[in-house]
Design brief:
74 residues, mainly alpha, 0% strand
Length: 74
Amino acid sequence: MENEKFKSLLTPLMASLTLGLAPFVPEPHVWGKLKWLMGGAVGMNPMDYFDLLMHGAPWLWLMYTLVKVFILKK
């Protein structure tokens, strides 16, 4: 039972750590977009919002899976 919980977390975790953070240098891309957004989003274009959505999607998937596995305890 516990092993299945961690198996269900593996794919969203790997997606978050790879696609969600890429490119890694000079800082994770999604982190830079979030800082830009929290700073007022001055100069953000629609493509920047779409980029934030694409890099943020794996993190949303991971949060959803964590809630499903550990909080809802189905």
